[in-house]
Amino acid sequence: MGGAGRTHDSFDYELKGTRVICNPRGYVLFNSGPENLDFDPGLVVEV
User: Fold this and answer.
1) pLDDT tens column, 3-33
2) Given CB 3.0 to 4.6 Å as the disulfide criterion, which of 14, 26, 31, 43 pairs with 36?
3) How many Å apart are CA 25 and CA 8, to the nearest integer?
4) Residue 28 and residue 47: Cα distance in Å, rounded?
5) What's the pLDDT at 16?
6) Are 9 and 22 in contact (CB under 8 A)?
7) What is the distance between the alpha carbons of residues 43 and 23, in angstroms, rounded to a whole number?
8) Reduced to 3 DSSP states, what percent helix, strand and coil does the chain have, rounded to the nearest 5?
9) How far is the C-alpha of 10 from the C-alpha of 29, rounded, in Å?
């Protein structure tokens, strides 16, 4: 995970009965494409 309370990686896990989902787009890196290849632009989470 990244510092300062953020992450650039995708996660989907449960912690003490709470589901944690993170789907960051991340940066588009110069000459190498998107930073997070697991980003899902179609992901919809209903709460």
Assistant:
1) 567 788 999 999 999 999 999 998 888 888 8
2) 26
3) 7
4) 29
5) 97
6) yes
7) 8
8) 0, 30, 70
9) 17
- pTM value surpassing 0.85: no
| pLDDT at site 31 | 84
* pLDDT reported for residue 32: 84
AA letter at 10: S
Q: What are the distances in angstroms from CA 41 to CA 3, 20, 26, 31?
A: 24, 17, 12, 21
- What string of DSSP letters covers 5-16? T--SS-EEEEET
Read off the tokens for 35: 């930073």
Tally of CB atoms within 10 A around 24: 16
